Amino acid sequence: MKVYILPLLLLSSYTQAALLTQPEAPEFKVITVDTQGEPYRCEGNSLITATHNGLNLTTLKYFGTSISIDIYGEDSSKAVMCNALNVIQKYHYLASNYSTYPHVTNVKSINNSPNQIHVIEPELTELIQASIEWHDKSDGYFNIALSPVIDLWRGYRAQCKGETKRLQQCKTPTESELKNAAKFTDINMIKLNSKNNTIQMQSGMSIDLGGIAKGWMAEMVYRQLKKDGVKNFMINAGGNIRHYGIHPQGRAFTTAIENPICKKYNNLLSHCQSLSEQYHEIITGKNLAIVSSGNYLRYYRANGKEYHHLINPKTLKPKSSGISTTVVMNNNQIYADIISTMLFLMPYQQSLDYANSHPAIEAVWYLTDDGKKMESNKLNNYRI
Questions:
Q1: Shortest CA distance to 278 belongs to which of 255, 262, 300, 266?
Q2: How many CA atoms lie within 13 Å of 118's alpha carbon, on the beta-carbon side?
Q3: What is the pLDDT of residues 195-238, one digit of tens each?
Q4: Average pLDDT of the residues in 323-352
Q5: Which positions ≥6 away from 119 have C-beta within 8 Å?
Q6: Per-residue pLDDT tens for 255-264?
Q7: Phi, psi at 257, each rounded to 5°
Q8: In terms of Cα–Cα distance, which of 242, 264, 245 is closest to 255?
Q9: What Cα–Cα distance (Å) separates residue 57 from each residue in 80, 114, 185, 246?
Q10: What is the pLDDT of residue 161?
Q11: Model confidence, pTM
Q12: Distance between CA atoms of 335 and 200, rounded to whole angstroms?
């Protein structure tokens, strides 16, 4: 999920805000990062700059997206920022399913030899354990073992780009391919020993933490900043918004959520010319997490239809309806990524019932191209 901070000149009515654009389940990309003896080096892996109100850290090297941290007030320091960056680095290395690193056994290491017993870091054990537990809590709509099916769709999407697309017709996985991949998606075949920090899986299996790792990391950065005594800050982890305290102007933080249809067409549609039409919700509040999931940016076309990257574990295919779901959470924010994706994939009534039965969660669903929406009972509490 990409995020852009709104230029101040455009924010006379909204003041400070962040845009939620590309939705959750990030793909960890192969990025060159110094891991030879200094995997947690701060210099060269981020840009730390002084701002009018404190400090900003920005890095493009982790989780395949832009991550920024703003600290407001006298408690900002380079050392505090580097501590926060170290947390980002740690979870990038642990959760990546694209690259291995010499100093750690990570998801890619496990996937390369699934039937071996791997000794892993306690932090990765905790992350995988939570993911396994959320399989049942989500009624099966969140499944880290779905990776073989996700990889199959990802491969077809990759074949439908650039020169390859011009040389052949874009295709989708066959039913036979999907059924074969599904044989290796039983989450009960993940043998995780949380006491000894070991994991072993069935041969042919793989896991993908893209639906939890970025939001989990953002919460761990949040905890590190609080541990270091920071009283006011905002984390923008590629669209996962997490903030604490108050804005320097003495008010709650404000987040503008992009109209997904306008974003899909780069604001070129006639009704997307004004600022007010480009953002379909303005959310404000204290100590919130705000995360979106949707189908409007990462997709490809085959046989006259669009196929996006969020795969329904029940059907093994992208969900055919709905455009985006945004969750606003005031408790248990560490699970915001999971819940956002889960509520997007669920049938509408089931997802609405879930949000309305959990006081910490409010949500809004952008359902159709013409702007039809659905929202939970108390979302209005967070509107500006």
A1: 262
A2: 25
A3: 999 999 999 999 999 999 999 999 999 999 999 999 999 999 98
A4: 97
A5: 105, 196, 197, 198
A6: 999 999 999 9
A7: -100, 125
A8: 242
A9: 10, 36, 38, 18
A10: 79
A11: 0.89
A12: 24
The two beta strands, 324-329 and 289-294, are antiparallel
| Tokens of residue 8, six digits | 């101040």
Tell whether the model's pLDDT for residue 9 goes beyond 50: no
Helices (H), 187-308: 213-227, 260-264, 275-278
What distances in angstroms separate CA 87 from CA 90, 163, 208, 222, 282, one per listed residue?
5, 39, 20, 10, 29
**φ, ψ dihedrals at 118, nearest 5°:** -110, 135
Instruction: Using the Cα atoms of residue 293, residue 18, residue 56 and residue 29 in order, give the sign of their dihedral.
Output: positive
Please, what is the Cα angle at 213 between 211 and 218, to 5 degrees?
120
In order of 114, 189, 202, the CA distances from 183 in angstroms are: 15, 11, 10
- The three-class DSSP label of residue 338 is helix
> What CA–CA distance (Å, rounded) separates 306 from 283?
30
* Alpha carbon separation from 205 to 29, 147, 180, 186 (Å, rounded): 20, 8, 12, 9
Can you tell me the mean pLDDT for 322-332? 97
What angle in degrees, to the nearest 10, is found between the helix axes of 78-95 and 122-137?
60
Cβ neighbours around 299 below 10 Å, total: 18
Q: Which residues contact 94 (CB under 8 A, 6 or more apart)?
A: 104, 106, 107, 120, 121, 123, 124, 127, 213
In 3-133, the DSSP E strands lie at: 19-20, 47-50, 54-62, 65-72, 118-119
DSSP string, 164-188: HHHHS------HHHHHHHHTT--GG
Contact 89, 99 (CB under 8 A): no
Cβ neighbours, 10 Å, residue 139: 14
Cβ atoms of residues 291 and 255 within 8 Å: no
Q: How many residues does the chain have?
A: 384
